[in-house]
Design brief:
Length: 933
């Protein structure tokens, strides 16, 4: 009787083809649903055995058939175990890699533990299923993970036979880690009664004869004969052996561990060799790869986070900010990172309460649609502040913790100047704070220090270069700038950039003429034109003007200069506006620090500074992940001075947050000061560079501030009647209405957030609400987030969600093609309400010069007082009929804007008579910081 007429042939070749067709549909669906998502398998090979190469080519070919990208990474035989483990770890950490296999056997000179290597592959990427974690899952019946490929293929072939596995008796010959043991476990968890036979089993023939399902993986050619087999049994032959055969061209034939001819006459179904289990191993490998990739894709693109919320323990009266902050234990920052979809390789831990997020996450998430973008601004602030940061935190707590919306707050890092000066901290307040607030308010992850270092390195290079040019002849200067090192003389990359700008085509230092040497070597900086100051992150008024170069070693080359506060450095603005590392470097290279004696710009690139500054900022470019009191995510990044720069957190933080929250989520970011300063710069500078358009403006106000703008006191006397208070408020709401008017000019819906305080009355809230709606806001909501945390801002969150669905007709305040003077006048008249703008002849000449040098199409950053809509801090409410005086103008070419100084503006704040220093202390017994607020 022929085998074909007795036993059904279980063709692994046919089943693998069908499996691969299904896998191709899955990869196509992944690409379609997840914006071109590509499944990626990495095949690691050590050495170059011919048999391994055959298997690898087969895997690559099969991968291509199902739409899987397969990368073959081959290492030399000389690789060490440590090196190989390190390489595998790179692929474990690479989010673009979804599956990793290490081709066995390892063809190496060094003694490498193959079990250690297979266990080094991340269980989530171990598509061979050989990691001990995946084996353990199979052993305990958890079949949701990556199942070893050959055993899984065996099960699929058994199912193909039509036999019901449950209730059958199964015998497995062989107990290997790769096949026998996991096959037995799989059969067991498919409810078969399983016997495992091995080299020590007595009377194997008798055990085999009991099997309804027989799986043979014993490694002996044609070991099992048909006479052993129970009639009607299903036989799966996992072996592949070569026997001499002179009739074959190759001189050998391939056989399994079962004598096929005799067994096929007894069994009901049997796998051939070759063409049985082998093809299914590759199919299951690809199936595991697609499964692993699908899991990753679903995590990346999932619509809803599963945040573990930290409950608030509300107390009355509300304790101090630091007491509240310390009463809440932050969750481990890695837990939060994983909750919002970040991968471990994208998180750089700074302890367990804060972490840097690598910008590589942006590339991984690039195809995700952005979430809704909310900007927080405010009215003209008072000396007590109106609570923009507190409102930002309260709103995100309401959205993320209570409304279950994916939401991230993006905040600036506070400068230590205000922290030790007037504020004592800026982490929010009450039950709407970022924690740990001590970390937030102090060094955090060192970004401001990195900015300080980069800025001051540039300052040192400027003065040092002037000194060396003044004290050396052309050839000596050139020889030192382009030295011979180990017998080789060559230009550095940044020096080649300078040669190109000068039109010098030589790249061999020996080929330059004397004239070219002089042109290359001498920047000829005019000291009177230097605009680059040194910085420090401390309020120190006595550094507002200093003299440098007084040491005898500087040979009487003194000049007057000054220190700015670090957050006023152009580098801080660049950090906030750069979209990635490449953009950061380009902006750094464009910084103009002075003019030469011929009036040409001298840039950071001319000084050779670009790469060095980028190195100092390489970690600072990554946003810092923290959390609110309720355990919702916050990205803290950059802290540009809200006068001299644009006063908003970084673009990269907003971009990253927009991808992490997904299309149905929300990103809430803050613009410094009121709508006239912070919001205006946010739209006309930051939005131009980021490309992110807000869907809602939240305008924060307080009753006490509006009462002050109406002529009342911030702290009214107890003898003031309600009528007197309301009269001042009714006048003061004009300031709020002006800020609403400023906001609606951009075509974005405005929601007014009334930051409630205990002394407020219902009628005062009604006055503000009515005035808000009259001025064009779509809603005005009382929010008690300071007192109640996120639960106190639920109505505000609902209003923001509703507003974000409204149609928008966004427009910038001015066109970049407008002359600089007209841009300044437009801002002054439209945002501040100025009647006119005063320019002296020197300012007008500067503006004309900037336009002639190509800076005319940059946006304008007007620096003025935040305490009034005008340029005079003493004018409250809504000043009219005033003239805005322009005192100075300069270009921040790297940041990408022209700075206009309106009125008296200092870039170095001072300490008050009684700064917050007096309240800040360290408890030496507990290590706690005292006095931050």
């Amino acid at each position: 009787m022929s085998a074909a007429s007795v036993a059904k042939v279980l063709s692994g070749t046919e089943l693998s083809k069908e499996t691969k067709i299904g896998l191709k549909k899955q990869t196509d669906a992944l690409a379609e649903h997840f914006n071109g998502f590509k499944v990626h398998l990495v095949i690691v090979q050590v050495g170059g055995r011919d048999d391994s190469n055959v298997y690898i080519r087969q895997k690559i070919k099969s991968a291509a058939e199902v739409g899987v990208k397969a990368s073959h990474i081959q290492y030399p035989k000389t690789i060490t175990q440590t090196e190989l483990l390190s390489e595998i770890n790179k692929y474990n950490s690479d989010p673009s890699v979804h599956g990793i296999i290490v081709q066995m056997p390892l063809d190496c000179i060094e003694n490498i533990d193959s079990h250690l290597i297979t266990n080094a592959v991340s269980p989530e990427k171990d598509v061979d299923g050989l990691n001990i974690v995946n084996e353990g899952r199979v052993a305990i019946g958890d079949l949701t993970g990556l199942i070893p490929c050959t055993p899984n293929g065996v099960i699929q072939l058994i199912k193909r036979s039509g036999i019901e596995i449950s209730g059958t008796r199964a015998v497995v010959l062989g107990r290997s880690k790769i096949v026998g043991a996991p096959v037995a476990s799989l059969l067991l968890w498919h409810n078969a009664t399983v016997t495992i036979c091995h080299s020590k089993t007595k009377d194997i023939e008798k055990e085999v004869s009991k099997a309804d399902i027989l799986v043979v993986a014993i490694g002996k050619p044609e070991f099992v004969h048909g006479s052993w087999i129970k009639p009607g049994a299903v036989v799966i032959d996992c072996g592949i052996n070569s026997l001499p055969d002179s009739s074959k061209k190759s001189g050998y034939r391939l056989v399994g561990d079962v004598h096929y001819t005799s067994a096929s006459q007894i069994a009901s179904a049997i796998t051939p060799v070759p063409g049985g289990v082998g093809p299914m191993t590759v199919a299951m490998l690809l199936s595991n790869t697609v499964q692993a990739a699908s899991k990753v894709a679903n995590i990346i693109y999932k619509s809803q986070w599963n945040l573990s919320i930290l409950p608030l323990k509300l107390q009355r009266p509300v304790p101090s900010d630091i007491e509240i902050a310390r009463s809440q234990e932050p969750k481990n920052i890695m837990i939060l990172a994983k909750e919002i979809g970040l991968q471990e390789s994208e998180v750089i831990l700074y302890g367990n309460k804060k972490a840097k997020i690598c910008l590589s996450a942006l590339d991984r998430l690039k195809n995700i649609k952005n979430g809704k973008y909310i900007v927080i601004t405010g009215i003209t602030p008072t000396s007590l502040g109106e609570g923009k940061s507190t409102t930002t935190v309260g709103l995100v707590q309401a959205l993320a913790a209570h409304s279950k919306k994916n939401t991230i707050a993006c905040l600036r890092q506070p400068s230590q100047g205000p922290t030790f000066g007037i504020k004592g901290g800026a982490a929010g307040g009450g039950y709407s704070q970022v924690i740990p607030m001590e970390d937030f308010n102090l060094h955090l992850t060192g970004d401001i220090h990195a900015v300080t270092a980069a800025n001051n390195l540039m300052a040192a290079q400027i003065d040092t270069r002037i000194f060396h040019e003044a004290t050396q002849k052309d050839q000596a200067l050139y020889d030192r700038l382009v030295p011979t090192v180990n017998g080789v003389r060559k230009f550095s990359s940044i020096q080649l950039n300078r040669l190109k700008r000068l039109g010098i085509n030589h790249t061999d230092p020996s080929k330059l003429t004397a004239e070219e040497i002089a042109s290359f070597s001498r920047l000829n900086i005019d000291p009177n034109t230097i605009t680059w100051n040194r910085v420090m992150d401390t309020n120190d008024r006595f550094l507002r003007k200093i003299t440098i170069g007084q040491s005898p070693t500087e040979k009487n080359r003194t000049r007057q200069t000054c220190f700015d506060i670090s957050v006023a450095s152009e580098i801080m603005a660049i950090l906030a506006l750069a979209k990635d590392v490449k953009d950061l470097k380009e902006r750094l290279s464009n910084i103009v620090v002075a003019q030469d004696i011929n009036g040409k710009n001298v840039t950071a690139d001319d000084l050779g500074m670009t790469g060095a500054m980028a190195v100092l900022l390489k970690d600072a470019i990554n946003p810092t992940l923290m959390q609110t009191l309720e355990g919702t995510p916050v990205l803290v990044h950059a802290g540009p001075f809200a006068n001299i720069a644009h006063g908003a957190s970084s673009i990269v933080a907003d971009l990253l947050a927009s991808k992490l929250v997904g299309s149905d989520g929300y990103v809430v970011t803050e613009a410094g000061f009121g709508s006239d300063i912070g919001m205006e710069k946010f739209f006309n500078i930051k939005t131009r560079y980021s490309g992110l358009l807000p869907s809602t403006i939240v305008l924060v106000c307080t009753i006490r501030a509006l009462r002050m703008h109406g002529g009342g006191a911030i702290h009214p006397n107890t003898s003031d009647t309600p009528e007197e208070k309301e009269k001042a408020l009714s006048k003061g709401v004009e300031n709020l209405q002006k800020h609403i008017s400023n906001s609606v000019k951009y075509g974005i819906p405005v929601v007014v957030a009334i930051n409630a305080m205990n002394a407020d009355t219902e009628n005062e809230w009604k006055i503000v609400r009515d005035a808000s709606l009259q001025a064009g806001a779509i809603d005005a909501v009382v929010s008690t987030h300071w007192e109640n945390g996120g639960s106190g801002a639920i109505k505000l969150a609902e209003a923001v969600i509703s507003a974000s669905q409204q149609p928008q007709e966004f427009k910038f305040l001015y066109d970049l093609n407008m002359p600089l003077q007209l841009k300044i006048e437009t801002i002054a008249k439209e945002m501040y309400g100025a009647k006119s703008v005063e320019f002296n002849e020197n300012i007008l000449n500067k503006l004309n010069t900037y336009e002639s040098k190509g800076f005319g199409k940059l946006p304008v950053c007007v620096a003025k007082t935040a305490l009034s809509l005008s340029g005079d801090p003493n004018l409250k409410g809504v000043p009219t009929n005033f003239t805005l005086p322009i005192m100075d103008v300069y270009v921040s070419a790297g940041a990408g804007f022209v700075v206009t100084i309106a009125g008296e503006i200092s870039k170095m704040p001072s300490l008050s008579t009684r700064p917050s220093i007096y309240d800040i202390d360290l408890n030496t017994e507990t290590g706690e910081i005292i006095g931050l607020s």
